[in-house]
Amino acid sequence: MSPATANPALQGARAQRQETRGLWLGVLGVTIFAFSLPMTRLAVGSAEAPQLSGLFVALGRAAVAGALSVLFLILTRAPRPQPADGLPIVITSLGVVFGFPLLTSVAMRHVESVHASVMLGVLPLATAAVGALLARQRPSMGFWLCALAGSALVIGFALLRHEPGAAGPGLQFADALLLLAMLCAAVGYAYGARLSAHLRADHVICWALVVALPITVPAALLTWPAVPVRPAAWLGFAYVSLFSMWLGFFAWYRGLALGGTVRVSQVQLVQPFMSMVFSVPLLGESLDAVTVGFALAVIASVFIGKKMPIRPA
């Protein structure tokens, strides 16, 4: 028995360092993902000035990331997943390769990035719930109160900033797509984190992309744009293909595996406001004192939630 194993204090310190590292990796992943909505909006354009189709952006970015994944798995000599990993990989793929990108890409043509950002603000709570169910963890009441408070803040912000004159059928449909996208992402994040406990985090997203290639490559070719689009649209597509669909998950899944899905997922609470900040230079959207105030309140709920205990089942 090693000294580190025999000494509970050393074990606790190592666990704390691992959790802290997981949280910082989670922050890196969330920062990368925070660009996803504004970049997707840049790629698909608006209803008045459409660019790339939502189907092409969603399926094309998965095809590009899948091709890169094949090369990466070969170069790193990745072992094949075990048979028991097959279903979790498929579920991860359905959530983060198909569900979330497809639903958000279609919705982003009909809503602004700021609005979509706050609609997805409940994603941390959904991810924590799915993660706790899979890992058989029991978050304390204080943890759930912090998660609920943070989610209530982003929902309240969405209601506060909702424009009464923009409540038409198109917007309601887009909101429904965003909520479904949130559920897909929560399931994909939780299952990917579970796989990352025994597979390399970068290999998890790569395998999820590779199993989708028989669908994404033909679909991307069929939806290839028939008319020229702005270079900015291709820039947005390049970002979501390389970073949102691939490199961001390297950090995100590793962070979830190290720090725990339930706890690290709460870092996502700041993602809506990070997306808003990024939308200002990219899309020309505005940022005011109310948004900053809500952002600070959400960050406070994340900080307090980090201190709350999480017990194993």
From TrEMBL:
GO terms for cellular component: membrane. The chain crosses the membrane at residues 23-43, 55-75, 87-108, 114-135, 142-160, 172-192, 204-227, 233-253, 289-305. Keywords: Membrane, Transmembrane, Transmembrane helix. InterPro entries: AA-Vitamin_Transporters, EamA_dom, EmrE-like. It comes from the Bacteria. Pfam families: EamA. Residues 21-150, 173-304 form the EamA domain. It is found in: Membrane. It is a multi-pass membrane protein. The keyword Nucleotide-binding does not apply. Belongs to the EamA transporter family. This is DMT family transporter. It comes from Variovorax terrae.
